[in-house]
Amino acid sequence: MIPVKSPGELEMMRKAGETLKKIIDELRSRIKIGMATREIDTIAEELIKEEGVVSAFKGYRGFPANICTSINEEVVHGIPSERRLEGGDILKLDLGIKQDGFFSDSAFTMILGKVDGRTRSLVAATKKALELGIAEARRNNHLSDISWTIQNYIEAQGFSVVRDFVGHGIGQDMHEEPEVPNFGLPNSGPLLREGMVLAIEPMVNMGTWEVRISENNWTAITKDNLNSAHFEHTVAITASGPEVLTA
After folding, report:
1. Which CATH number do you get for residue 183?
2. Does a structural domain hold residue 160?
3. Stretch 239-246: mean pLDDT, rounded?
4. Domain-embedded: residue 1
5. pLDDT of 46
6. Taking a C-beta distance cutoff of 8 angstroms, is the pair 221, 75 a contact?
7. 239 in a structural domain
8. Which terminus, N or C, of the chain has the lesser number of Cβ atoms within 10 Å?
């Protein structure tokens, strides 16, 4: 069953989204070439504590950090380490928090220095795909309308959507029903209802959609070692249309 939030619960999720956006904006402003990803995690931990909230990721199924930092061919679930950011890298940063019993989740891809045109197009297309997917998160649309819109746009740009990882419902649990794939046919799956909240997150590869899991048993890497991009927002279905809680 897909949870439907009450007006009061949605207000709590708005607050969690606002807090997460504040943390991400500040964190992003501090990221620089030459930093180790572990340093970024330390800053994130400090910002989370300053806001009086809890990291949604640290300790989740044993994950050892507050954020996921995935670089270049790493798709998602990168573990912060002593690896330093270099010019020409693209960094995917994923962060979630729990505030007053409700979760919020968001991710972005950051270009560091100069990258080639194809990589820049990959990042731009992934961000645009998220926007198009969010626009479909409306009452009485099918869940798959989000999925199909993302896939259709991405494949028209010559890229591919990851199949192994998908978006999800979110609320009092980090991962709730339903799964939100970034691929599928339109006009299928459950109807979207007012009060549902989804974490929509296209993960897009430059080459094949296939991934492999690294030796740390967490980080997903493109099978062909080409770049990948990732954007995510927490989105509520409302009477007036989609409401992005983390924007």
Report:
1. 3.90.230.10
2. yes
3. 98
4. no
5. 98
6. yes
7. yes
8. N
Phi-psi region at 86: left, alpha or beta (left = phi > 0; alpha = psi -120 to 50): beta
Domain that holds residue 159: 7-244
2 occurs within a structural domain: no
DSSP 104-158: EEEEEEEE-S---HHHHHHHHHHHHHHHHHHHT--TTSBHHHHHHHHHHHHHHTT
How many other C-beta atoms are found inside a 10 Å radius of the C-beta of residue 85? 22
**How confident is the model over 43-58, as a mean pLDDT?**
98
Total Cβ atoms within 10 A of residue 185: 12
Q: Strands of 197-200's sheet, edge to edge?
A: 176-180, 167-169, 197-200, 233-238, 241-244
Structure tokens at 235: 């989105």
Q: In the prediction, which pLDDT does 17 show?
A: 98
Query: Which amino acid is it at 174?
Result: M
DSSP H or E segment with residue 91: strand 90-99
Q: Which SS3 state, helix, strand or coil, does residue 62 take?
A: helix
Give residue 145's pLDDT band: very low, low, confident or very high (50, 70, 90).
very high
In order, the DSSP letters of 151-172 are HHHHHHTT-EE-SS--EEE-SS
